[in-house]
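In response to a reviewer's request, we include the raw inputs and outputs for one of the modeled complexes. The two entities were modeled together in a single run.
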Amino acid sequence: MKLKRRIIRRGRIEIIPMIDTVVILLIFYMTFSRFAEANRDSALKLPESRAGEKWKKLPQQVIVNMHSADVCSVGGEKHNVTELPNLIRGYYASLGRLDPALALRLKTGESKPSIILRGSRTMTYQDLSAFMRICAKTDLREFLPPGSPTGVAEITFTALEIQ
Amino acid sequence: MKLKRRGIKRGRIEIIPLIDTVLILLIFYMSFSTFEAKEKSIDAKMPQITSKVTPGTTFDLDITLHVFNQTNILVNGASFDYKGLCDQMSQFTTTPEQKVTVVIEGEADTQYQAIISALDACAQAKLTKVAFRPLPEKPSDKQAAAPSK
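The model returned the following structure tokens for the whole complex.
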């Protein structure tokens, strides 16, 4: 009896589904890299406003995402509002190593430290008060020109455009 | 000689590439629909205390906004809703001689949205020098200010 030979199928790469998959992955990573870059907490529901301008984070700005006084996130990590002074000081201290030109601009007064507050619409004035007190007391004088007052004076509030 | 008939190819829809394309479009629109509501920024410059006061210094005009909620905002004692507040704030003009400082205060349970609405009214009236009168400090907040070593 003659046995039938089994046909050996060679593995091959299908180009068209591969292109589809690659495009999907590309879109996925392109979309989510925008969140990572801007340190924005996408779960936060911002309040709405009519006034305001489109914004982009500047290197001397720290983004604080605030759900309440107990839940704030900076750089993707969750903290309590009382931990913010050390985090903000840590950020400006690291600029000397990461961006010496900016550190020099801060030291000469050309640039000013600034905080972008992305607050949840559900938080209360009690939470905002805690944040404002922290901003007023955060001591950044070692990174600023001599005689500078204590505290961060420039605060940017973010909101969604009213549709 | 018998001529061979040309085979007529019927147009047909390829299902698998169609599904791929639809899926890509779905992901694309789902991703970008989250950006539909544009995020905006309102700048506020907090006044800082300096000890030196030179002769002839003009002091800023202070306007106090006490925010209870979006429909009840007191401006120097008079009550306004958000729309009325926008009209009211536009009457305060800023000149080089006379600058206006807005002081926003609220109740402990005032919603942040109402505070932003008050700030929004100030921003529409080009009043960017805004201060917040904080509520009394809780004991837990007092430890935070000192730099850690």
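As requested, we also summarize the result in words. The helical segments of chain A are 15-38, 84-98, 100-108, 125-137. Chain A has a mean pLDDT of 83.
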